[in-house]
Amino acid sequence: MAELITVARPYAEAVYSLATEQGKLDQWSDALSWLAAMVNNPDLAQVVTNPKHTAQEVEALMLDVLGSRGNDDVKRFIAALIENARLTLLPEIAAQFELLKAQSENIVDALVESAFALSGEQKAELTNTLSKKYGKAVRLDVRENADLIGGVRVSVGDDVIDASVRGKLQAMAVSLKN
Question: What is the membrane topology noted in the UniProt record heading this document (predicted)?
C-alpha cells in the first residue's frame, strides 16, 4: 500500500498543480473519479490490463467512457499513464488528488462508524464538534457497523477516536491482562 501511494503521489501532485493553475479542480476531480472507477470495474480492468490490447485501443476505450470529461489534458494524462504502465494506479492517484483538493479547501474527511444509524441532528453535532477540534470544515462519511455494539468510532486522517462499546471492552481486557 505504501508503495502505491509513493508511486501515485507525483502523478496526483502534477495533476493537482495543473488543475489549480487552470482553475479546473472540480473538472479534474470528476475525470479522475471516473478513471478510477473504470480501473476498479472488473470488466474494464481486464481490457485495460490485457497485453493483447494496444495502447491506442485502451486509450480509445477510456476516452469513450469518459465522454466530455476527456479534454486534451486528460487525454495526455491517460496517454502518459499508459506509456508508463501506470493505469492501475488511477484509484490511488484519484485518492491523493482528493486529499490535496480537500487540504486546499480547508476540509477534513472523517469516517464515522456507528453501531446504529445517526440522526441528522447527531451528524450535525458531530460535524460541529469535529470542526472545532480540527479548525476545518468536516465532511462526514457515516457507516453503520453493528460489530461496535454501541457508540461510535471516528477516524480523521491518522487520528482515531474510539468511543464504541467494543473499543472500551477491548481496552478493559488489555488493562486486565497487564
Answer: Peripheral membrane protein
